């Protein structure tokens, strides 16, 4: 007997992108102190008021099966939030609550792709994007956004990639690069979607972490609400990564399909977690602002720490909770540099290659440790890069 080839095909024959993370955690289990800058997870637990709301709901009996699409109150609160932030009307009928943003992505692709359909995605991309597309039977089609262009996608290349495709996936504010797509980019994306009759999946889980310009959702652009599925989550905005609560915001007919898939995939999200999410959306504005302010401050710490360094170059992030550092002057790939950094300095970062070819020779650094540890880690990264660059120069 042979197992299904479906899951084996998810990686597409490549590495998972998580190898440095697994090695760092093995070292931690062996007692080595690692400054872990890999995963986008807050260093502190979920804020106490959210946990208190979760506890009260569970103790109050909300532990039975929930509505598969999410409680009517939570869906209404998500719709209100989306309408306020995007400027486009939304109602609870447009919302399905999912087990985090990752499940929302899978649900969205399941509702918009058939087997063999192409889904266009922009490189660099979040690690799971290609595998999520393959999990639906779709085919990832990748187009670049170069560091030299501030990680804004090349619209001509994007247009060419979209010919014959069915879905376009965008992510702004962007993980890993921290880029926020310009008005020109978003207008171009919308025009391409309309011209090629594409579904647009817009991953906006970092919509509350925009530093240098406001977040702008393509859903609000002319003719886009009826073809856009927005991905949202409370993981980053309210420190609820382990609670696994996200959502899709989509045209009503797509939401109905997503709810059908959710019925057969997860059969709903625990009611007490939904109640905690509802509290977070209604009462947690100060929590969201505080968490966002932390990452904005750490972005500035990173920019100061790496200013004037010759062997590293920071692509100034406009949002999200990461910085991308160019280490190509060392002559090493991002993966090789990350391995040496872990071995020699006990600092764990994600190699740029985990996020696609456009991020090769870079490191993605999550701003998820205390300020002092972050500053120490950045200094060690820059020192190692300068040592390696000097060795390269001396070798001719």
UniProtKB/TrEMBL annotation:
Signal peptide: none annotated. One of its GO terms (molecular function) is pyridoxal phosphate binding. The keyword Transferase applies. Its cofactor is pyridoxal 5'-phosphate. Residues 34-381 form the Aminotransferase class I/classII large domain. It is an enzyme of class 2 (transferase). This is Aminotransferase. It comes from Albimonas pacifica.
């Amino acid at each position: 007997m042979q197992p299904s080839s479906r899951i084996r095909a998810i990686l597409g024959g490549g590495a998972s992108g998580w190898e440095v993370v697994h090695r760092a955690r093995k070292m931690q289990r062996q007692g080595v102190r690692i400054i872990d800058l890999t995963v986008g997870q807050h260093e502190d637990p979920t804020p106490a008021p959210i946990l208190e709301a979760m506890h009260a709901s569970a103790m109050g009996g909300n532990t039975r099966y929930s509505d598969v699409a999410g409680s009517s109150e939570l869906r209404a609160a998500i719709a209100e939030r989306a309408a306020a932030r995007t400027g486009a009307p939304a109602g609870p009928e447009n919302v399905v609550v999912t087990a985090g943003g990752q499940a929302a992505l899978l649900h969205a692709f399941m509702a918009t792709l058939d087997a063999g359909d192409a889904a266009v995605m922009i490189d660099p991309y979040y690690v799971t994007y290609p595998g999520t597309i393959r999990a639906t039977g779709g085919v990832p089609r990748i187009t670049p956004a170069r560091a030299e262009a501030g990680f804004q996608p090349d619209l001509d290349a994007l247009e060419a990639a979209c010919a014959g495709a069915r879905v376009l996936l965008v992510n702004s504010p962007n993980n890993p690069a921290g880029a926020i797509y310009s008005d020109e980019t978003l207008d171009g994306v919308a025009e391409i979607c309309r011209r090629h009759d594409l579904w647009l999946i817009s991953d906006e889980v970092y919509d509350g972490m925009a530093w240098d310009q406001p977040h702008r959702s393509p859903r609000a652009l002319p003719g886009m609400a009826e073809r856009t599925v927005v991905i949202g989550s409370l993981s980053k905005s309210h420190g609820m990564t382990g609670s696994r609560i996200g959502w899709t915001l989509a045209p009503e007919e797509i939401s109905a399909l997503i709810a059908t898939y959710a019925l057969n995939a997860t059969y709903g999200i625990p009611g007490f977690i939904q109640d905690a999410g509802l509290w977070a959306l209604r009462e947690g504005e100060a929590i969201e602002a505080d968490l966002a302010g932390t990452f904005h401050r750490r972005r500035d710490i990173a920019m100061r720490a790496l200013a004037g360094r010759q062997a590293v170059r920071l692509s100034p992030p406009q949002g999200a909770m990461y910085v991308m550092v160019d280490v190509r002057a060392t002559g090493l790939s991002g993966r090789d540099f990350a391995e040496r950094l872990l071995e020699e300095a006990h600092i764990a970062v994600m190699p740029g290659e985990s996020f696609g070819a456009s991020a090769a020779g870079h490191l993605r650094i999550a701003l998820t440790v205390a300020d002092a540890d972050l500053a120490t880690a950045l200094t060690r990264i820059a020192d190692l890069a300068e040592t390696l660059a000097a060795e390269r120069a001396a070798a001719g």
